[in-house]
Design a protein that fits this description.
about 375 residues; mainly beta; Pectate Lyase C-like; twelve-stranded parallel beta sheet; 42 strands; about 40% strand; elongated
Length: about 375
């Protein structure tokens, strides 16, 4: 039986320390019913439907369709001994003391911290949650998500994935994940494929957005792109793997962006960083240009880029180019360089660069 899309999380949240509130379809009409479980007495209350006593203090409600009849069953898990009891269906021991159940109504350690917990692996639910105008915070459990279209975050202020390698969002062609909500914190997500026009699969349009521990992979265009309205944004420990165009691309009008510990792994004609300001400990591996039209760069490295390590960049300190016998020009049209190093380039180390200071050196093959 096909159920309608849910507007409530499939995992419980605890209220007032006295019970659990959740949603499940107890009458088989295709709509989830609001329900509460009171562990002190084992009482289940289903709004406008019934009240029963089933379970005791310490039990965790886990309503699911255990027999496949299209109706969720009353069930609980007893963490003291791993005992499952499905009303009118079965009683089994599965698990050990201290284990927690997973499923509709089951335990989730994040429900007290977030307004909504996305159903694992449900791309449609992910889209609804992130585009919500109601939720302030959303938690995304580990899983593979396949939304049907672009997702634009306009109101949610905190989006946390369980782990960057565990939360995989596969975008369809010509789509993107966009953040226009000012002050939004985004963490531990991996976005794959997608990209549209000159918009990456990870687009930041709002001001003061912080993105950390996130990954972009195989974007058709840019991996991470931020627009002219994205003042005050922070990209921390983010990584773009194999972008079709540029790994991280900013806007020349945004002077107060910050990129910390960001990495691009690239091949072919794609570039590392373009039009980005205030970069610290960033790294490019392969690709065409490493850093282009970037300013205020500290302790950053371009490795084995095809054409140039740094081009049209200003105010570089403790930056390094390792050409690996691949890069043609180490640094070109760069200005105000301090403690920079270039090695193993094919043609030239510093071409048309100006204003050097302290310990700057270079070598060609």
């Amino acid at each position: 039986m096909m159920k309608k899309a849910l507007l409530f999380p499939f995992l419980i949240w605890f209220i007032a320390g006295s019970g659990s509130s959740f949603s499940a379809d107890f009458n088989g009409d295709g709509d989830d019913d609001l329900a509460a479980f009171r562990p002190a007495t084992g009482r289940w209350t289903v709004r406008a439907l019934t009240r029963i006593y089933f379970g005791k203090a310490g039990d965790i409600p886990v309503p699911l369709d255990y027999n496949g009849d299209g109706t969720d069953d009353y069930a609980y898990f007893r963490p003291a001994n791993g005992f499952w009891n499905v009303r009118g269906f079965t009683r089994i021991y599965f698990g050990s003391a201290g284990d927690v159940p997973i499923g509709k109504g089951g335990y989730n350690p994040y429900t007290s911290q977030y307004d909504y917990v996305v159903r694992p692996g449900d791309g449609d639910d992910l889209e609804r949650a992130l585009e919500s105008a109601t939720y302030h915070s959303v938690f995304v459990p580990a899983g593979t998500y396949n939304p049907s279209e672009s997702i634009t975050v306009t109101s949610v202020k905190r989006i946390s994935g369980e782990s960057a390698e565990g939360v995989l969002i596969h975008l369809p062609a010509n789509s993107y994940l966009a953040f226009s909500s000012s002050g939004c914190l985004v963490e531990r997500l991996t976005v794959l494929n997608g990209g549209f026009g000159n918009v990456g699969n990870f687009y930041i349009g709002g001001a003061n957005v912080t993105v950390r521990d996130c990954r972009s992979r195989y974007s058709t265009y840019e991996g991470f792109l931020y627009g002219p309205s994205a003042s005050g944004i922070v990209l921390d420990n983010c990584r773009a793997d194999y972008p079709g165009d540029t790994g991280f691309k900013g806007s020349s009008s945004v002077k107060d962006s910050r990129l910390l510990n960001c990495t691009v792994v690239s091949t072919g004609a794609s570039d590392g960083f373009e039009y980005c300001n205030n970069l610290v400990n960033c790294y490019v591996n392969a690709g065409n240009y490493g850093f282009a039209y970037c300013n205020n760069i500290v302790s950053s490295t371009a490795y084995a880029c095809n054409t140039m390590g740094f081009s049209h960049c200003q105010r570089l300190s403790s930056c390094h180019v390792d050409g690996n016998s691949t890069t043609l020009y180490g640094m070109q049209y760069c200005d105000n360089l301090a403690a920079t190093t270039v090695e193993d380039c094919d043609v030239d180390t510093y071409q048309l660069c100006n204003h050097f200071s302290t310990q700057t050196w270079g070598s060609c093959d």
